[in-house]
Amino acid sequence: xxxxxxxxxxxxxxxxxxxxxxxxxxxxxxxxxxxxxxxxxxxxxxxxxxxxxxxxxxxxxxxxxxxxxxxxxxxxxxxxxxxxxxxxxxxxxxxxxxxxxxxxxxxxxxxxxxxxxxxxxxxxxxxxxxxxxxxxxxxxxxxxxxxxxxxxxxxxxxxxxxxxxxxxxxxxxxxxxxxxxxxxxxxxxxxxxxxxxxxxxxxxxxxxxxxxxxxxxxxxxxxxxxxxxxxxxxxxxxxxxxxxxxxxxxxxxxxxxxxxxxxxxxxxxxxxxxxxxxxxxxxxxxxxxxxxxxxxxxxx
Length: 300
Fold this sequence. Notes:
single chain, mainly alpha, 12 helices
């Protein structure tokens, strides 16, 4: 299979403004992935970053394997894309987030994740050889301004905080790339078969790092419970929902779901982990939501 065939995307099947189905998918992702940063923080109290990554991926794959639809066949010609997605959508970014959250709060990690739609749109424009509509460009740029505002208070927190921020942003680049690659696969085979196979690839790829971190981990009910929720819902089900969303509306508009994650992440971080919240962060979140609304509008 040629590189051009592997590195390609397609437009979504629905060009209209988001309806109840799309907003329902977005809401599920916002709640599930917004809570995932809190679960990672809780798990880090007793488990190593590598073990957290491997457990959440493996639990997600096991949850999906129980669904008959997830075991439907996928063509052999799509295996290179499945392997690529296993690395760029799950293995690498899922490894980066727990490492980064050793130095930054769950709230900030959730906020930084909101940069993903910008990378998704830029990569989609390159692969499709077509720029997004003006209203979508405006929404993405406004969203980016919001992300900059919400991160400003944390850039002065020291070298380790800056490293954590850069690791999360790198993970969002991989997310932006992978959701584009996932669009044609979802349209061909459905979300469940694709995501199950992608998770199996990622579980194999992250196993060595998990074994390396066994000595730094301890069995605690809170940590294991957090990873269980993170794996079944935040990895298994949520990735399938995201694949369905981008298959319907494309990678550029599907990425708008990520803009809502910081609201949940910040709220949970403040309530359960005593994270601080600066006034400029609230302003930035409002700007992000304005950008998300514009980016969700009908395609021309």
